[in-house]
Amino acid sequence: MSAARVRTRRELRGQRRRRAHGCWNHLIAAPLWPKHGANLGTLLRTCDAVGACLAVPRLPWVPAALDQGNTLRTRSCVHWIDGRVDRWLQRQSHGGSALLGVELTDESTRLADLPVARRRTVMVLGHERDGIAPEAMELLDLTVEIPMVGTGHSLNVAVAGSLVLYRLAGLS
């Protein structure tokens, strides 16, 4: 068996999109109750990788948090949510977006069974300890769970969001 050839950076860049994606495209990651700053920057980096946007509440510490884990030169495709997040979610739903929550419920779809997003989809991520707020749970069209075999009961927001984003984008 021959050794695999490693592609050069130039080859990799040539295979990727030629220009940045448009804002408010069909995938939006929405960590609406952020707890840990580094997770936001990491999730922003994943958004860039899959062509998604990030929607975050306008909190004083969030801009610095986005810079903390983001290895990109710019902070593109970040949209700020002013006011109540449940009202923002209602507007997204009334605008035709599917609302998908990453949460453990009796009706959750397993990650492996989650179809690729075919229409505008807002992926809602909850607080790392408390999950998605009850008023937002009522608005969701679907919930997805990430099966785990270890002793922990959940993943952090950046890891969970990244796994689901790759699946929704059809890249996994």
UniProtKB/TrEMBL annotation:
GO terms for molecular function: RNA binding; RNA methyltransferase activity. Keywords: Methyltransferase, Transferase. Pfam families: SpoU_methylase. The keyword tRNA-binding does not apply. The keyword Methyltransferase applies. GO terms for biological process: methylation; RNA processing. This is TrmH family RNA methyltransferase.
